[in-house]
Every structure is written in C-alpha cells, then in structure tokens.
Amino acid sequence: MIRKILFIFSAIITIFILSCTNQVKERNPKELFINAGEEPKTIDPTLSGNDFVYPRHVFETLITKDKKGNLQAGACESWNVSDDGLVYTFNLRTNAKWSDGKDVYAADFVYGLQRAADPQSAAEYTSFMEYIKNAVKILSGELPVEELGVKAIDSYTLEITLESPTGYFLDILTYPIFAPIRKDIIEQYGDKWSLSPETYIGNGAFIMTERNPDEKIVVIKNTNYWNKDNIIPEKITFVMMKDPNLALAGIKDGSLDFSVQVLEQDIEKLKSDGILYVSPYFSTVAFGINATNEVLKDTRIRKALSLAIDRNYIVENVVPTAKSPTSAWVAVGAYDVIGDFRENGGEFIDISKEGYSNNIVMAKQLMAEAGYPDGKDFPVLEYKTTSDLSYMQVAEAVQQMWKENLGIDLIISSMEWAAYQQMRSEKNYQLIRTLWIGDYSDPMTFLENYLSYRSQNTSGYSNIIFDKYIETARNSANQETRMKAMHDAEKLLIAEDNLLIPIYNPSNPLLVSKRLKDYVVTPLQELQFHYAYLETK
C-alpha cells in the first residue's frame, strides 16, 4: 500500500515537473524574462546613474538608437543645428503621448532638463548637462535653473543652446537624463513617483505594471506610444538577480532569456553549450584611489601599488574573458585625429611579461623613498568592491601580489550594488573597484569625470592643470588641439598623479537563450529589447 502511494505521489510530481517544463517551452514568444542586474538604486531617468535599461524602455529621449546602434529621431521628428554648432532646434512629434494618454510637449523636456541641472536633485549624470549653456553655474548654485540654455519655442519646438560646439552632443542626448518629465507628477508625488506603476508615467515604448524591490520590474507594451506597431515584445519581466548559478539554471530550463550574471570559470562550457554571447566592451577596470586619504596622497605609493600588479597573470588566469591588460585609462575604441586614441597614446608603464620583474624593483624603491621599506609600518589598506565574483577574485590576486612584493596587507570588503553606489558617492573608501564604460566614442567620456568641480568626481581629485586640459578639449572645435589636450590630461591623471590603477580592458560575457532573437547590446553596454522575441520551434 505504501509503495503504491509512493508510486502515485512520484507520478504526480513527475507530471507536475513535465507540465511546468512544457509551460516553459510553450511560453508566449513575445513575453521575455530578462536579468539586467540586481535591484537598481533608482529608475528615475533624471537621477539614474548606471541602471539605464529600465528608464530606456519606459521613456524616449529626443534621439535614440536603432538595432545597429545608429542615431535616429526618437521623440522628435527632425532637428537642425546652427552654423556655429551652438543651437540645436528639435521639432517634436505631434502624435507623441505619455502612457496616460496626455500629449508630450516641449515644456516637458524643458522641465526635465531644468530638474536635472538643479543641484537639489542630486542627479548622477550631470556631466552631460554641463555642455548646455549656464549648466555649470546652475549646478554650482551661482544661477537659477531658469537660466539653463533650454526653451520651448512653442508646444512642439524645443531649443537647446550649448556652451561650445560639441560634435558628439547627439550621442549624449540618447541618455535618460535627457528624457522628458511630467511636472505635475513630480509636484504631486515627489521622489516617490518612480516607485509605483500608477505614477511612473513615461513617453516610451513600455509601461511599468509591477515593481517589487529586489524581485522584479514588469513592463508591457505602451499602446499610446507613437511607434507601437514596430515594438515586438508584449511584456518584459526584468528579474532582479545577482546569483550566476540561478541565472544559468533559468537559461537552461527556459524560464530566463537573458542574463548579465555569468560565472567566469564556466566560459568555455557555456560557449560549447551555445548560450554565451561575448559582447564588445568599451571599458576599463581599475583600482580607484581616494585622493583625500592621508596615506594614499603620496603619489609614490600610488605608483608602487600599480607597478606591483602582474596584469598579464590576471588576464590569463583570473579573468579569462578580459580583452587585454592595460596601464592606461581610455580604452581602445576612442577615436583620435587619426587612428585610435589608445593605440596612439600607448601604455604608461611596461606591462609586458618581461618587464614585470623590473616593475617590482621600481615599486620597492618607491615604497622605500616614501618611508616604508619592505612595507614596514605601512598601514593596512581596504579595498571596497561589489560582490561580483570576478572582481573579488581580481582583488584577491592583487592582495597576494602586494603582500608578496611590497609587504602590504589589503582587506577586501564587498557589498550590494546600491550600497556600493552610496559609499562611492560619499567618498567613504581608500581603494575602490572602478569600472568605466564609455558613453560615446570620444576620449572625453573617460576623462571629464575627474574635473575638480564635476559631481561625478567621487575620488576627491583636484588638479587645476588637468581641469585646464579638459576645458581646452571641451571648448575647441579643432580636433588636433582637442586630442593633444586629452592625451596630456590622461598622462597627468595616470602617469604623474597616479589617481587610478588601470588593470585590464574587459569584454562583456552574457548568458543568452538560444531562442532569443533581435536583442541589442552595444559596446557601451546599452541593452535594448524593443525588437526582441523568442524563436518558436
């Protein structure tokens, strides 16, 4: 009798599992399950720092990108640029609507941009605002937001005036900080407006219908969107997940279609299984230094820490998906007057395998000059990072190198993404995991964050000469002048002041279901699922 009961119970379980499996296989091809990371700090398009994937699906900026990464008209139908390159005039779509059915007006863009420039908003990407006339003075509190160089000529015509000609301004306009914002929504709900589907009103391709912190964000196609007929997914569930093992299980059983969480050790197996996509990455990974830290103020110590790292070992043994070791900050892929900025600029220390032993000799000498021969009496350092396994493993490798070569002890502290962002903004660290992904193909995208007055400068770095180099590059229309100034700026930042310890240029491994088609991942790590679908069998 007991055997019979167990058999029946086992059969029921088996049927249930098979049923669930069939349900996964028979999923609606226009309903996607995407893991774009863990819980974002905010999905407010004005305030968002790195979690752009969510506002990019709910909001539409003036300029967007197509499947191939080319710029195209988004919320505007067309635009004109004045002969001097300072005034951009955008003709908005008269059929564009908010998700609640109200019309989108030029005044909504004006309000959104003024809100972004308001120092009280504490927006993270204000670096992009600084190109607009008077933005720097507004951000520093010298002028009111009404003086920002944006105005609504009429209901459907927007004018933006720049401080100086900026050849990549249209590229910048694709970022969520330039999205329109409803003034009435902000005035009624304040900072909590982006937390609820009822108040998270956008003008983009999707509408948020659910938001469960640390679990999921669900969006559905916006039937009021002007281009809704070309949007493929009916529903996207963004799953908040940080465990790569769970992500892999989801990809394999068909309950997940895409994930940014990948176990580096499984790369070759994942490749053979056909579920790994290694995306190009315009990026550099470095150890960032708090310039205000008493011990690390000494540039000799910073230089020694950099020289003592065996970058080739890390690339070959710790991060197998890395593209290359590096001692420079601007990644390969940024243009120069002729050719590639990085290739023209070269490295700042000898990163060859043969040169490492000599680097150790120089590092020991620098530490001795700084008063710490063989690391004697040198205080314990702390390195703070996100909990991603690959970053932890890199830190452990560096920890061992510094101990063996310099006699320096390093404590490694990891934290969740939101806590990491908060800690970084408060400059509450000595050494920090620093990853920068270029926002556009000009070298400026890697350098301008270290301007002394830049809100995104969380390093405490301040050098008037560096500022002048960057301002020269910003204000000149001559490419030779611009590029020379940026080469000089990078050399000062990395080779002389040693503010950053660049280690490697990563690639971007992603887990992707064999069934997922027409998703978009750019070298700038822009994720777009507007045209994605599941291939039916």
Give a written overview of the molecule.
It is a single chain. By secondary structure, the chain is of the alpha+beta class. Helix content is 32%, strand content 20%. The protein contains 17 helices and 23 strands. The strands form six sheets. The protein has a seven-stranded mixed beta sheet. Helix 9 packs antiparallel against helix 12 and helix 16 packs antiparallel against helix 17. The N terminus is likely disordered.
Number of strands: 23
Low-confidence stretches: 1-23
Question: What number is the mean pLDDT?
Answer: 92
Number of helices: 17
Strand order of the largest sheet: 8-9-10-1-11-19-12
> Based on helices, strands and strand pairing, what is the structural class?
alpha+beta
Helix content: 25-40%
| Amount of beta strand | 15-25%
The largest β sheet comes out as:
7 strands, mixed
Shape: globular
End-to-end span in angstroms? Answer: 43 Å
Radius of gyration: 25 Å
What is the fold's blueprint, element by element?
Blueprint: H1 2-25, E1 31-37, H2 53-58, E2 63-65, E3 71-73, E4 76-81, E5 87-92, H3 106-117, H4 135-139, E6 150-154, E7 157-161, H5 169-172, H6 183-189, E8 206-212, E9 216-221, E10 235-240, H7 244-253, E11 258-259, H8 267-273, E12 276-279, E13 283-289, H9 299-307, H10 311-318, E14 324-325, H11 341-345, H12 356-369, E15 381-386, H13 389-406, E16 410-415, H14 417-425, E17 431-437, H15 444-447, H16 464-475, H17 479-496, E18 500-505, E19 508-512, E20 516-517, E21 520-521, E22 527-528, E23 533-534
Parallel strand pairs: 1-10, 1-11, 15-16, 15-17
Antiparallel strand pairs: 2-3, 4-5, 5-7, 6-7, 8-9, 9-10, 11-19, 12-19, 13-17, 13-18, 14-18, 20-23, 21-22
